[in-house]
Amino acid sequence: MIKICPKCGSIRVNWIAGGIAGAVYKCDECNYVGSFILEIRPEKLDQFRKELNSKR
Ligand SMILES: [Zn+2]
Q1: Residue 21 has pLDDT above 80, yes or no
Q2: Are the beta carbons of 56 and 21 closer than 8 angstroms?
Q3: What are the tens digits of pLDDT across the range 28-53?
Q4: 51 in helix, strand or coil?
Q5: Partner residues linked to 34 by β-bridges
Q6: How far does residue 3's CA lie from ligand 1's centre (Å)?
Q7: Domain count along the chain
Q8: pTM for this structure?
Q9: 21: CA distance to ligand 1 center in Å?
Q10: Average of per-residue pLDDT across 6-20
Q11: How many angstroms separate the alpha carbon of residue 20 from the centre of ligand 1?
């Protein structure tokens, strides 16, 4: 499983803070910061990005 940004679909997501209460992640692509992050299988990444693009 890989972590991806729920906003832009980037895999450039970094764990910046957190602990027992929950982690906080930051996306390098769109500067999204939050505890909600998507985890998907690598083979689903292309499909997810297509869906993301079609919503724009
Ligand atoms: Zn992002």
Answers
A1: no
A2: no
A3: 999 999 999 999 999 999 998 898 88
A4: helix
A5: 25
A6: 11
A7: 1
A8: 0.77
A9: 22
A10: 90
A11: 24
